[in-house]
């Protein structure tokens, strides 16, 4: 893991600003005096390992970046990144399989931090039809496969709306600690062609409560909304960075088609 060249105090300040907290508010949440917190952020005081972890916890810093903070402060990382194929991950794999299988006949996919496909249920095949083989080669990136001209994009009825929604999600993820890969992915996807207007702000139409995904399929149209699920209280980076996206029918016609 490459270490950040900034002092740990500057990184903690960046995270505090990212979370829109004042020093007084973070002091109250963490039990660290405002004076001591100020000294840490300015480099006048070196935080202990326990203080780094306490502040990172109150700032809801992702586990990967908590390890980075520890390394920058001169301490060993504490959070492992166990391959999903490891025997230690048997129960995690079983939980994922149970969730996505139980969601059938509706689609469900599992992705990692960089939106690479980790797993999917059989119903997710409704999205795979017509996607070029090179986009499905592992590691297949679901955002790239969705918006690429050789991917799902030609079948998305509301491509401009859905594309704006996906890019907004990715843009929110590309913060200062997100890494170059997500920034490069955002630049790549933004450059893909789109012949529909893309709203700058997601506004609801009549009766809309979510941004739907509308897909042409077998001569008809299917409409979906999705729900994201993550693991609660993860202590491993791999587990913390997994997300299950479950797609639900947005209208009765789609529900009937999928159940059939």
UniProtKB/TrEMBL annotation:
One Pfam family of this chain: MLTR_LBD
Gene3D superfamilies: 3.30.450.180, lambda repressor-like DNA-binding domains
Gene Ontology terms, MF aspect: DNA binding
InterPro entries per record: Cro/C1-type_HTH, Lambda_DNA-bd_dom_sf, MLTR_LBD
Top-rank taxon: Bacteria
Domain called HTH cro/C1-type: residue spans: 12-66
Protein name: Transcriptional regulator
Species in which this protein is naturally found: Rhizocola hellebori
Taxonomic classification: Bacteria, Bacillati, Actinomycetota, Actinomycetes, Micromonosporales
